[in-house]
Amino acid sequence: MIPNPYPGIFIIIDGIDGCGKSTQVRLLVEWLKRETYGAGRVVLETKEPDKTGPFGKMIYADLANEDGLHVTDPARFQMWYACDSKIHLQNKIIPCLEHGGIVISDRFRSSMVYGARIGDDIPGLMVMNQMIIGEHFIWPDAIFIIDVTPEVAIKRLKENGRDMDGHENREVLDRTRGHYMTFFRAYPNCIVIPDSGLVSPDTKSMNIREHVEKLLKQKPACGVQGRTDVSVS
Questions:
Q1: What are phi and psi of 53, to 5 degrees?
Q2: Going from the N-terminus, what domains does the chain have, and what CATH number goes with each?
Q3: What confidence tens digit (pLDDT) does each residue in 10-35 have?
Q4: Do β-strands 190-194 and 230-232 pair in parallel, antiparallel, or remain unpaired?
Q5: Which DSSP state fits 93?
Q6: In b/e form, how buried is each residue of 147-162, taking b as 16+ CB within 10 angstroms?
Q7: β-pairing verdict for 138-139 and 102-106
Q8: pTM for the whole thing?
């Protein structure tokens, strides 16, 4: 992995399924558009994996199979995610960062923790990602990990009418929540956003914005001119 060498800002919102990632991505984008902080910069709102891409299609098809690779060999399953991420970095993320834009992604390679059976598997997964993604493995300026219990996450998923996939059950979510904390302690630029289930989305958003404001001051707008636009992949 390579520290972001570009004038743009690379931000990730991550955590177990049902933690509220999509809501926080939306609120952050809306805030950047509403305030002056994003003025003069393109804001790219995006998500991994890409459902329309070759590896994204394989991933979602496998998650719908109760005996899929995500169950039989979750570490190998993560290879598809790494391949998807490499394409994403090359085609969308890095071009935006090169021109001073702000990339806000719902998931990135921090989600590799889903492929770990135990915490000690995570370094090996990181090596695998580095080998596949190579020189394009740009490390985010901030990785916000929303920490919520599996009970709260599952309740939210059901309330949203989601058809649960192979990653969205109590056992997987409980294990993965712990792995995210292991990841947080091991790798740079990770920030945990606690969510007891009683915290409002706006409160979490304010917490995230405090950290993003610091990044915006460290990397003032340059390169991309014009009003803030949002492009969704």
A1: -85, 165
A2: 2-232 (3.40.50.300)
A3: 999 999 999 999 999 999 999 988 76
A4: unpaired
A5: I
A6: bbbbebbbebbeeeee
A7: unpaired
A8: 0.90
